[in-house]
Amino acid sequence: MTIVFTLTLSATLLLLLAVAMAAVLGWANQAFHVAVDPLVEAINEALPGANCGGCGYVGCSEYAAAVASGEAALNLCGPGGASCVNALAAITGQEATAALPYRAVVHCAATQDQRLPREKPLYLGEPTCAAANLVAGYQGCTYGCLGLGDCVRACDYDAIHVVDGLAVVDYDNCIGCKACAAACPRNIISMVPFKAERMLVVACSNRDGGLAVKAVCPIGCISCSMCAKKSQLMRMDNSLPVIDYDAYRDEGDFAEAIEKCPRESLIYVGKPTPEDLAKLAGEELPDRIKADFQTTVDRTDWWG
């Protein structure tokens, strides 16, 4: 009998406690309720919810509030694209403006083997670009890609990888969130408006003179300004050519400039065109890839 009474009393107390807590939470919900503008809610629902910060705001909800108040344009959401712009225009009653996708571009094209001097000093520090950037002499070019993958770790979309010591963007996955650009300590990653499947970019960030560039890179820009002389959409700025992407129309704008460039600083990035794929149609691949079974031990310089 005592056990039944104890169990009944315990159950009753728990029930009363639950009712009391529910009442308190209900009161708190009413007392501290913050009214949300239905327009902001509708805009937030139309956004992709990536919360990448590429629009310049802290998350989609803050961008939604800025759009609702008229402080932000409708076309700042890179992941959303044109469909998102149209949805926001329908919700807000504003005119839909063209939404060009901004994608990351690495302004360096030199692979590990192309960087001079060939023999690099031994680096035993933290394997990050931020740490290596503080060490003098890590590599000859003080403007080039460090290749230690800070941008790779910053990207949540698997859109950038280090290939042969160089950061390479996967444009099938890139949404233009700017995370890689923010992570690069040398600021050689920028966001470019992609008006076509592939875009011409200046793949060099070295602002030194021609002789200094030749001493550290066989493909870097030597500031000859030939490209700027051959294309009205290019100009020299602090020893480097700059492309006017506002006036950019198509690849024909730069045909003569690319032909006259004595280096390999002007390259196209993005998805290959049908013409590019046709050029590779006749390439034959080997039947089997043979491994050389080398390890890091094989490439180690032993002392003593």
Helix-strand blueprint:
Elements: H1 2-31, H2 38-46, H3 59-68, H4 81-92, E1 102-106, H5 129-132, H6 150-154, E2 160-163, E3 166-169, H7 179-183, E4 189-193, E5 198-202, H8 210-216, H9 226-230, E6 234-237, E7 240-243, H10 255-260, E8 266-270, H11 274-279
Antiparallel strand pairs: 1-4, 2-3, 5-8, 6-7
Helix pairs in contact: 2-3, 2-4
Strand order of the largest sheet: 1-4
Q: CATH architecture of the largest domain, please?
A: 2-Layer Sandwich
Q: Give unreliable regions as ranges.
A: 285-304
> How many domains?
2
> Main β-sheet, in a few words?
2 strands, antiparallel
Form type: elongated
Work out the strand percent.
Answer: 5-15%
Characterization of this structure:
By secondary structure, the protein is of the alpha+beta class. It folds into two domains: 38-92, Orthogonal Bundle (3-methyladenine DNA Glycosylase II, Chain A, domain 3); 102-279, Alpha-Beta Plaits (2-Layer Sandwich), CATH 3.30.70. It has eleven helices and eight strands. It has helices at 2-31, 38-46, 59-68, 81-92, 129-132, 150-154, 179-183, 210-216, 226-230, 255-260, 274-279; strands at 102-106, 160-163, 166-169, 189-193, 198-202, 234-237, 240-243, 266-270. The strands form four sheets. A two-stranded antiparallel ribbon has the order 1-4. It has a two-stranded antiparallel ribbon with strand order 2-3. Strands 5-8 form a two-stranded antiparallel ribbon. A hairpin with a 2-residue loop joins strand 6 (234-237) and strand 7. Helix 2 (38-46) packs antiparallel against helix 4 (81-92).
